[in-house]
Amino acid sequence: MQDISFAAGPIAVIKLGGSILTNAHAYKRAAVFVRNRHQAAPEEKLVVVVSAQEGATDYLERAARKIAPEPNPEALDLLWSTGEIRSVALLALELQARGVAAAPLNIHETGLSITARTEGNARHVERVRLNARRLCEVLGKYSVAVVPGFFATDSTNAIVSLGRGGSDLTAVLLAEGLQACRCELVKDVPGYFTSDPHRDPTARPIAHLTFEKALELADAGCDLVQRNAIEAAARSGLPLVIRSLRERRPISRISHDQNVETWTDSISPAVAAI
Fold this sequence. Notes:
This protein is α/β, with parallel strands linked by helices. It has a domain at 11-186: Acetylglutamate kinase-like (Carbamate kinase), CATH 3.40.1160. The chain has helices at residues 24-40, 56-67, 73-97, 107-110, 133-141, 166-177, 211-219, 227-236, 269-272; strands at residues 11-16, 45-50, 102-104, 112-119, 122-130, 144-148, 151-153, 159-161, 182-186, 192-193, 205-206, 208-210, 240-243, 252-255. Helix 2 packs antiparallel against helix 3 (73-97) and helix 7 packs antiparallel against helix 8 (227-236). The longest helix has 25 residues, at 73-97. The radius of gyration is 18 Å and the shape is globular. The two termini are 21 Å apart.
């Protein structure tokens, strides 16, 4: 990962998942969330990683399979990427409409490239490089950079997907490379749970957990955060905040050390100091 220092101030990476980008109103709600965050800590630069609107990736895959039962992987990745690019543009426009200086970036402008191996339908990232020149240029002029999740480029500069839940991994890799003060993964649930609360009504929220425990839960079927993203954060020691759009709802923190102060809102001074 490229070593980079950004002189213009602290950077926070915030990922907005497809499960909260469900319709046109949801993009407005997400824009209000980002605007409020910017107003609460105007000294921070925000890199907002977005997924495709809920259902868009599945829709695009079905469209591809109507043409070819086994679509060419390169063509499928390119088709999928249109969902994330659409989200980037829509959220940037909503932010601009609310007076936030926000710039939309495409996959190549984000500067994230990987070397990976493929096993079956899974792609395992082996090496990551971040060329942050363009991203830093944008952050020097704008308060918010909106970037696509789920994708990077490969050694040939082609667009490649990072697997289901790959926007989590995008956010972690960018936060690590930009030396961000925090990385927040915004979901449709208020934090991390013992299992997926959408499928298990007995799921219990967890305020703090170690990376080891999060990986254990992931292996048991709790896929609230992509496993590759948890592994990447663990390797770099990057604490993760898991939360919903609701500012005052409980949130969860994944880190190497569980003995940390509890907070209920990620704009609080306790989190700003991370």
